[in-house]
Design a protein that fits this description.
The chain has 488 residues and is α/β, with parallel strands linked by helices. 40% of the residues lie in helices and 17% in strands. It has 14 helices and twelve strands. α5 links the parallel β3 and β4. Bound molecules: zinc ion.
């Protein structure tokens, strides 16, 4: 006998949900495979291969290595309109190799990269949701095209502005990007901030630092003086601006004046215009630093993203599916793990969330950025948060890695994939809602002209993170999951 939930659902959505339930083992294997791959941005070779193979095996036509991104892909199923795109990231972070299910900082491989923002679950939800929706499209003859975009290097905010620049979203009508959270959530209006990521490399002349420093021109001085200039400028930034940096090359040893030194900056603001203004000012400060240190400076923009915005029509559509699917049923063991970890991490102890909340109105814009931003100005988009992590735990902290290879992540991936598949199916069943989203999106961005902030000839940074990944990959390989995901 059908449950009341099944009775209230369309047969297409029931089919998708049954697909997810039938494939719990494959979901676990996929999620944990990506977790243990732990691949950094632009180096997601194992991860993207696994995802592409699964999509191809299920009948998607897969284009690998799109827009100059070796680990990016676009998989297509179906034909005609509407064209619905889903896209997400699957990269890890440096030095965050955290063992799953352990409530203390403990490395899988000391010093190695690892997932601490749950992008492994993002990938799992996207693939499972795509396969589930495709099964429903096939069985029920739904008209339309589903596109699945793999987006490398979100942690460095790289790929999607390039995808948009290449025209990959020109024929897309509506987009959804799934992202891990502690509960279901979706918003509209401005959700995240704009960001420009750029490295400043100073060039000088080396000399013996002890014997003849007067013969050298110190590139590190350029970096340090730029830092001083930026610190002074902070007083004059508007409240929505902020800037962060790491010195990626400060020279090799103290007895050689460095002829080359680099600093990598992130410039943030609530608007693309504000981020650009901040970046332009930083370039002037860098020129001043070069002048003072008698060096030259070269600026390389790695990426530049618009703030993520949510379209109200798509947000409401996704919210209805959240309420239909519901939060996972957490076990006492999962609740115990959550409470122990919250206590250990020194955050509010409240266990796991059990209710789906109503959407509260326009989102509150956060300083975080995501390279999905450019897509959201091009087409109506929802950022779809699903519950697969422990509440109150901050991302990029060891504690944020604990749940990602456990049943908390697996159950979260299941409900996330159901909500995603159902949202896609709703668009194919009801194309009028897609037209409505396009209409409201146009209205929402009225007065803004979207154009990429990437320099016109900027190329994707394909070598990004390669040395660090090469250093750890062999040791990490020993921990790879043996179980291969097979969806039936
Ligand atoms: Zn993320």
């Amino acid at each position: 006998m059908a449950s009341s939930h099944e009775a209230s659902n369309s047969p297409e959505k029931n089919l998708a949900e049954q697909f997810v339930e039938r494939n719990q083992q494959a979901i676990k294997a996929l999620n944990d495979s990506i977790f243990y791959f732990g691949e950094l941005g632009m180096q997601e070779f194992e991860t993207s291969k696994l995802m592409c193979d699964l999509l191809e095996k299920d009948g998607f036509s897969v284009e690998r290595g799109i827009a100059g991104f070796p680990t990016g892909f676009c998989a297509t199923y179906g034909s005609g309109e509407p064209v619905i795109a889903i896209h997400t990231e699957y990269d890890a972070n440096p030095d965050n190799s955290q063992r799953a299910g352990v409530t203390e900082q403990a490395s899988i491989v000391e010093g190695a990269p690892g997932h601490c923002e749950g992008h492994n679950v993002n990938g799992t939800v996207m693939i499972t949701g795509a396969l589930a929706a495709k099964r429903a499209m096939e069985k029920h003859g739904l008209k339309g095209t589903l596109k699945v975009f793999g987006a490398p290097a979100e942690e460095q905010l790289v790929s999607r502005p390039y995808y948009v620049r290449e025209g990959l979203f020109d024929d897309v009508d509506l987009a959804i990007t799934p992202h891990i959270g502690a509960e279901f959530g979706v918003g509209y209006g401005l959700i995240q901030s704009a960001l420009i990521s750029a490295t400043f490399t100073f060039h000088g002349e080396s000399a013996h630092a002890g014997v003849a420093p007067w013969n050298g021109r110190d590139a590190l001085d350029g970096v340090v003086l730029m830092d001083v200039g930026m610190a002074e400028y902070r007083e004059h930034m508007t409240k929505s601006m902020s800037a962060q940096r790491v010195i990626t090359n400060g020279g090799d040893q103290p007895n050689v004046i460095p002829r080359k030194a680099s600093v990598w900056w992130y410039f943030r603001d609530g608007t693309a215009e504000g981020a650009t203004k901040l970046f332009e000012r930083a370039k002037k400060i860098a020129q001043g630093a070069a002048l003072m240190s008698d060096t030259t400076v070269e600026v390389d923009v790695m990426s530049a993203v618009w703030p993520v915005r949510g379209n109200q029509t798509v947000a409401e559509l996704v919210q209805r599916e959240y309420e239909r699917v519901g939060q996972p049923h957490w076990s006492p063991e999962e609740e115990k793990l959550a409470r122990e970890l919250q206590a250990k991490a020194g955050v509010k102890v409240e266990g796991l969330r059990r209710d789906v909340h109503r959407m509260k109105g326009p989102a509150i814009q956060k300083p975080a950025a995501n390279d999905a931003g450019d897509v959201s100005w091009k087409v109506p988009m929802a950022k779809m948060y699903f519950p697969a992590n422990i509440p109150n735990i901050n991302f990029h902290h060891w504690a944020a890695g604990v749940a990602l290879g456990t049943s908390i992540a697996h159950k979260g991936a299941e409900v996330g994939a159901k909500a995603l598949a159902n949202s896609i199916i709703e668009c194919f069943l009801n194309p009028a809602i897609v037209a409505e989203a396009r209409r409201t999106h146009k209205k929402e961005i009225e007065g803004y002209e979207y154009r990429t902030m990437l320099p016109p000839d900027q190329k994707p940074p394909v070598a990004l993170n390669a040395p660090m990944m090469a250093k750890y990959r062999d040791a990490m390989r020993e921990h790879y999951v043996k179980d291969t995901p097979v969806f039936s």
